[in-house]
């Protein structure tokens, strides 16, 4: 590795020449710090440039001028979400809406209240309006909810890593998209999908044909396996059909044919009652009552004897 001429020119105050590896590491970190400073200066210049947007005081944020759009997209390439927040703050200090393509002034709420109750659009299917509690500082960033939505849509597209840590070829990939452009693209995509004369590409047709062949192969393999299993079991008259299903027939029973059911004939032991399939349990309630009656009769007889004595 060839040594840097700047490293050769440097000498320590003691007169000793330092280690070139240490000098190379120090120079690498110094270049990183300088690149970070240059990026911060570039972002600050871009913020000052975006404060002056839009170019016309009567511009419509829903359909901005193409020059303003290109300027905004090019300026937001090195931005992080925190840099975008600084841009909103600087525009609010100037009395402008936080959205860079809006020429109107931002809202000015009552300073005594810290929060506001916001009512959203009326819901469909009988649902009521959505209510949100928003901090006053959040409301004062924008002129309307539409501009807040446009600005936040740009913010979520910004890269989290700082610009000095990105690769050199990531600049074109970091181009942001406006909310109106995204909505137009989505609408055009839906119209293409709903077109009646839309022709399915050949690749998709080939994929569908291959999937159909795969399903047919699975069904054939399943039927073959069922037949093989029946042969292994010794079932020559297999009930399986070619499609692998069992041949089952359900028939309704004809009640008009055959002998009519006859009630069972009573047994001699059933005349007394209290038997369970011919078995007469002992100690039934009737037997207990009869025993108690006999005991009472015996007591009465003893009383009669004592009275006679």
UniProtKB/TrEMBL annotation:
RTR1-type domain: from which residue to which, for each copy?
A: 74-167
Q: Where is this region: Disordered?
A: 251-309
List the catalytic activities from the record.
Answer: O-phospho-L-seryl-[protein] + H2O = L-seryl-[protein] + phosphate; O-phospho-L-threonyl-[protein] + H2O = L-threonyl-[protein] + phosphate
Q: Name one GO cellular component term.
A: cytoplasm
The answer to keyword Protein transport applying to this record is: no
A Pfam family of the record is RPAP2_Rtr1
What sort of enzyme, by top EC class, is this? hydrolase
Top-level lineage group = Eukaryota
Location in the cell reads: Nucleus
What keywords does the record list, in alphabetical order? Hydrolase, Metal-binding, Nucleus, Protein phosphatase, Zinc, Zinc-finger
Q: Does the keyword Ligase apply?
A: no
Q: Name one GO molecular function term.
A: RNA polymerase II CTD heptapeptide repeat phosphatase activity
Which PROSITE patterns does this chain map to? ZF_RTR1 (PS51479)
| Enzyme Commission code(s) on record | 3.1.3.16
Basic and acidic residues bias: start-end ranges: 295-309
Q: Which family does it belong to?
A: Belongs to the RPAP2 family.
Function summary: Putative RNA polymerase II subunit B1 C-terminal domain (CTD) phosphatase involved in RNA polymerase II transcription regulation.
Full protein name: RNA polymerase II subunit B1 CTD phosphatase RPAP2 homolog
């Amino acid at each position: 590795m060839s040594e840097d001429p700047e490293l050769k020119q440097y000498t320590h105050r003691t007169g000793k020449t330092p280690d070139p590896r240490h000098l190379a590491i120090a120079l690498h970190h110094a270049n990183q710090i300088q690149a970070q400073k240059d990026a911060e200066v570039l972002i600050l210049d871009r913020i000052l440039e975006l404060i002056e947007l839009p170019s016309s005081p009567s511009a419509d944020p829903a359909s901005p001028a193409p020059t303003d759009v290109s300027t905004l997209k090019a300026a937001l390439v090195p931005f992080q979400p925190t840099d975008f927040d600084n841009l909103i703050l600087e525009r609010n200090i100037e009395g402008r809406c936080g959205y860079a393509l809006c020429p109107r002034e931002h809202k000015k709420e009552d300073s005594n209240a810290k929060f506001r109750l916001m009512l959203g659009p009326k819901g469909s299917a009988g649902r009521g309006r959505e209510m949100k509690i928003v901090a006053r500082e959040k409301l004062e960033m924008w002129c309307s909810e539409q501009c807040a939505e446009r600005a936040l849509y740009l913010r979520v597209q910004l890269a989290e890593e700082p610009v000095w840590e990105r690769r050199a070829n990531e600049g074109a990939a970091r181009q942001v998209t406006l909310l109106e452009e995204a909505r137009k693209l989505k609408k055009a995509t839906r119209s293409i999908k709903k077109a009646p004369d839309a022709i399915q590409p050949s690749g998709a047709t080939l994929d569908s044909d291959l999937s159909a062949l795969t399903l047919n192969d699975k069904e054939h393999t399943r039927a073959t396996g069922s037949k093989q299993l029946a042969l292994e079991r010794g079932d020559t008259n297999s009930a399986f059909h070619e499609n692998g299903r069992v041949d089952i027939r359900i028939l309704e029973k004809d009640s008009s044919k055959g002998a009519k059911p006859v009630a069972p004939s009573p047994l001699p032991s059933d005349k007394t009652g209290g038997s369970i399939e011919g078995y007469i349990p002992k100690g039934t309630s009737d037997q207990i009552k009869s025993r108690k009656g006999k005991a009472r009769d015996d007591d009465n007889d003893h009383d009669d004897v004592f009275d006679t004595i």
